[in-house]
Amino acid sequence: MREQKTKAFTLVEVLASVIILAGTIVTIIMYAADGLAANLQLERRLKSALLAEKEMEKIKNTLRNSFDTDFTTWPGSLGDNYLADRTATDVSSTLKIIEVSVGYDADDDGSLGTDEIMVTVTTQNAERS
């Protein structure tokens, strides 16, 4: 009788296949994680821009009613760990430069560090007679 040869993978071939497959899966997971991190950063920047514009409009509306209002003392929290810093520079008695910086408080310390500021909006506001 003839002996039949069975075809099978050797242990070395199986291990090589597993290593190649694991390397491929790890690479895909790393790219996906990078994509998620970039997406989160972009989402935070977009939300910061929208909140900064909203704060600026709120300030301008307040200054229309009372030009001497001190909006720099308003609470910094905008919800969901977003914070705002507001500054006003008096150019003259009838002109102010207003700056609103908004960002995500990543370290949750209740204040915006320079690395946490995502958007800064600046405008000039004149007192209306």
Written overview of the protein:
- A four-stranded antiparallel sheet has the order 1-2-3-4.
- The termini are far apart.
- The longest helix has 55 residues, at 11-65.
- It has one domain (11-126).
- The protein is rod-shaped and about 110 Å long.
- It is an alpha+beta fold.
- It has one helix at residues 11-65; strands spanning 77-79, 82-92, 95-104, 117-126.
Describe how the helices and strands are arranged:
Elements: H1 11-65, E1 77-79, E2 82-92, E3 95-104, E4 117-126
Antiparallel strand pairs: 1-2, 2-3, 3-4
Summarize the structure.
By secondary structure, this protein is an alpha+beta fold. The protein has 1 helix and 4 strands, in the order αββββ.
Mind describing the biggest β-sheet?
Answer: 4 strands, antiparallel
Radius of gyration, in angstroms, nearest whole number: 29 Å
Question: In what range is the share of β-strand residues?
Answer: 25-35%
Order of helices and strands: HEEEE
Shape: rod-shaped
Mean pLDDT: 92
Determine the N-to-C terminus distance: 113 Å
Side-by-side strand order of the widest sheet? 1-2-3-4
Structural class: alpha+beta
Give the total of beta strands: 4
The helix content, as a percent range, equals 40-55%
Query: How many helical stretches?
Result: 1
**Poorly predicted spans:** none
Total domains = 1
Which key terms come to mind for this protein?
129 residues, alpha+beta, 4-stranded antiparallel beta sheet, 4 strands, 43% helix, rod-shaped
